[in-house]
Fold this sequence. Notes:
The protein is mainly alpha-helical. Helices cover about 50% and strands about 5% of the residues. The site of carboxymethyl coenzyme *A has 20 residues, from helix 17.
Amino acid sequence: xxxxxxxxxxxxxxxxxxxxxxxxxxxxxxxxxxxxxxxxxxxxxxxxxxxxxxxxxxxxxxxxxxxxxxxxxxxxxxxxxxxxxxxxxxxxxxxxxxxxxxxxxxxxxxxxxxxxxxxxxxxxxxxxxxxxxxxxxxxxxxxxxxxxxxxxxxxxxxxxxxxxxxxxxxxxxxxxxxxxxxxxxxxxxxxxxxxxxxxxxxxxxxxxxxxxxxxxxxxxxxxxxxxxxxxxxxxxxxxxxxxxxxxxxxxxxxxxxxxxxxxxxxxxxxxxxxxxxxxxxxxxxxxxxxxxxxxxxxxxxxxxxxxxxxxxxxxxxxxxxxxxxxxxxxxxxxxxxxxxxxxxxxxxxxxxxxxxxxxxxxxxxxxxxxxxxxxxxxxxxxxxxxxxxxxxxxxxxxxxxxxxxxxxxxxxxxxxxxxxxxxxxxxxxxxxxxx
Length: 435
Ligand code: CMC
């Protein structure tokens, strides 16, 4: 019997089968149980995939107990300090950081691909003025394959690369257009002379229009830095719900725009990317420091659906390294804007209170990245409905890195989980007049 294996005995039949234990570069051993159906005539039950590795991946590593997050081996703290978002996007997709020429070429290509087809702009007119920007984002991104179908041979690596760069380039344009539509302002075209973050802020907030460039708008360097940081922190998080959705969708051979639209839809939920918006709503609901004990009590009450948004994480069980980095940026951005945000004060008080509470200590519930990201977005004047859209812009590079990795592997099977069926046994229909 191999030491690097795990034996499973079926107690009713007495049959024992050995399954190989796979060891990755880092992280826990993983049992390869793919043959269990054939060997023991049974499936495994793991709702929420809490113990199941759905793929092999070289992209991101998380050690939830130690609070470690690595993109292609580089700690998130170093990437946050030394890189811009496009460098990180390049790293995620290509496996190595770019040199200066590669970064310049990549940035230029992204800038050149940032325009959207003129007819695509008309899509926005079909949405109600008060549509949620995430609803528009899902719809418009899903429609991209109707406009860009010349490079959709998914067996061709160059086609896949072009789709990925195009998606990263157009995401801020579509996101800003969703916002401008929701506030009834004219769209602002992307500018080739601006960097990724500056361009996005310009498309969001300048008074430009299709025929006019606002000469008075310039992006504040601290705001640009904060946005760059937020995009890096949210760029990837291995096999989370939206990334797994992108992989599952991509495993059918669906086009990448449809896969990213599926990822955006999965991200929208309050337990995932919608959490930053939910945190702000929660802070407003709490309203003042003296009401914190009341809401902490509600969060602990199992009969009350209220949860402390921005607390807890499926993977991080000690601290979220992204939260540690971002907390400091909150101070910088607020100081720069000369703004005393009462919601930030409230957030800090809530954090302090919860971290001393036995319930939160016992369950290892700590603030996650989204506890603070909303406060920064608020200081950047980005409205709450746009928070999850911001997350989607950032995560696009991660989704695409996973999609590219999966598509390059010819052995990738279509994703098809099993189930434990608890419905009625086979039965016969009784004619309607006899029921
Ligand atoms: N407030 C109060 N209790 C909580 C919370 C919370 N935010 N999170 C978990 N718990 C309790 C939960 O009730 C359970 O208690 P018990 O053991 O008594 O039944 C225990 O802690 C374990 O919770 P769980 O739901 O089994 O943990 P999970 O790993 O399945 O859920 C989570 C993780 C993120 C969905 C959950 O913590 C949560 O809903 N948090 C609030 C939403 C949030 O901030 N989401 C953003 C995640 S970070 C962004 C991203 O990476 O996508």
